[in-house]
Amino acid sequence: MLPVVALVGRPNVGKSTLFNRLTRSRDALVADFPGLTRDRKYGQANCEGLQFIVVDTGGISGDEQGIDAEMAQQSLLAIEEADVVLFMLDARAGLTVADEAIARHLRIQNKPVHLVANKVDGIHGDSEVAEFYRLALGDVHQIAAAHGRGVSQLLESLVKPLAERFPDMLTTEADPAAEELDAEAQLERLQNQPIKLAIVGKPNVGKSTLTNRILGEERVVVFDQPGTTRDSIFIPMERDGREYVLIDTAGVRKRRKVSDMVEKFSIVKTLQAIEEANVVLLVVDAREGLSDQDLSLLGFVLNSGRSLVLAVNKWDGLDTDVKNDIKRELDRRLGFIDFARLHFISALHGTGVGNLFESVQEAYASATHRINTAMLTRIMEMAQADHQPPLIRGRRVKMKYAHAGGYNPPVIVIHGNQVQDLPDSYKRFLMNYFRKSLKVMGTPIRIEFREGA
Ligand code: GDP
Ligand code: GDP
Predict the structure, then answer these.
(1) Which atom of ligand 1 is nearest to the CA of 122?
(2) 201 Cβ below 6 A of ligand 2
(3) CA-proximal residue: ligand 1, atom 12 (nearest)
(4) Taking every annotated instance into account, which residue ranges of this chain make up the domain EngA-type G (predicted)?
């Protein structure tokens, strides 16, 4: 489990600037898909040795009536579900009435809050920042999100309150020899455990119907699990002799004792489920086409490195012409995720549901298929012979060898001289080359570069 950090504040204080800085991927290749980067509201932060889920709550203005109801609902829910709130203020503007309204709301939430004064590059002296202490929410962190100033100190302050509860948030720099052993141990574990399958999608796409459909055909062991609003239910099941744990984000098997809120769609719950899963089944609604929310979820899945199967639901009762139009549109907009299988299903009637599991198995098998050093190095050498790496600062980039650095997703670590400076175009070429040579389907792959032997 990763902790959830919510960015809260009135419009224009710099939330998305900080969000972008935190979520800018170390491995731009995985995250850099056209059409997914704009307008993201939640993402995975991976910086300064820390990993966490970050949610930009966007719509909070302090005047909850004034904003679109669902948006405000989601923002409030995200705050409720967050482990820490970063309450952002604009140091240049000073304290405003809206800030005070938000502060009042946060005080009753009883949630750890860090005050963050942004844009300190634009102020002279400390008086603007001093005002923020009046909110009585503790210390004020001073940052300039646009320039990165103060951000590492801010992150540092998150470690102490969170790391004990969320040890996974600390990422460690790998040592190559230990890494190879770790990858092997990880593979062993992955190959001997049930496949954790998360069924995710925005509200009303048919997740509950699909989950019931899948479970209806299986012998289900339902058991009580304590939990908070953001916990999914884990349901063990078997299919074709393979063990699974279904991660039910739709709350199908949740006991009725919990409040109404729990049954509602929760972004944070969905993100946690993706993090927990080995394979994600992303459900979209054929009749609605792809929405921003679908693309955001997709972006999150890609970023997390999970295996992916796409289900286009409600494929019943549509004319052939309409079906063709939908297919064409999906092809056009999803062309860039050529590794994921696309299924057209009707959860209501059960059509196509059985076949989903073939793709799930295939995706998991691809993500957990052993790749050895000799093979990876050979593929790397072939790629290098096919298309010579460029000169950088007058020296030819030289890739020396490759090994597996992990699985689910498969991570390929390439060692060599100046490899970290390879241009994105060459990295992309390598990615495609490895993908084709390894014949992986259903899982993204990652390439990491290390200087030296
Ligand atoms: P949001 O509405 O809270 O998401 O705010 P944005 O991230 O969109 O930022 C609003 C404006 O403030 C943009 O024009 C940013 O370029 C600017 N901004 C953000 N961070 C900083 C900063 O650290 N210093 C300065 N001077 N401007 C900033
Ligand atoms: P969830 O919010 O994603 O869990 O969505 P639900 O499973 O509750 O479904 C939302 C609505 O879509 C319900 O009225 C379902 O009956 C309907 N629905 C779900 N799957 C299908 C399908 O395959 N075809 C059609 N026509 N309707 C469906």
Answers:
(1) 26
(2) yes
(3) 14
(4) 3-166, 195-368
